[in-house]
Amino acid sequence: MTEEKFKSEVEILKKFFEIHCAKKHNTLLPYKQSFNYKTLHFSVELNLCEECRNLINYSFERLYECPHEIKPKCRSCKNPCYEKSKYKEVAKIMKFSGIQLGLSRIKKFFS
Known about the structure:
Elements: H1 3-24, E1 29-37, E2 40-48, H2 50-65, H3 84-110
Antiparallel strand pairs: 1-2
């Protein structure tokens, strides 16, 4: 996948995991995660509990190892690289956070 797509996917995971963790957990710890992908080098700052931190790191590893040049959505991939149980956990987080983002946009619209 392109470097821009990789960075975008990392930012999406960061946003969704932080929304979920802030709403569901109370032991958030700040930390910095560095990435080296092809010629791209960057860092992101995250605020997550230990459980979410472990799961997002797993997701980052899967993203880094994705063999597709044009990355499909994970749920429609013919060669899934996520363990089934981890995929279900990440899918729950993405669903919850997607709903939260939608609700916050609706609130802003009517405010």
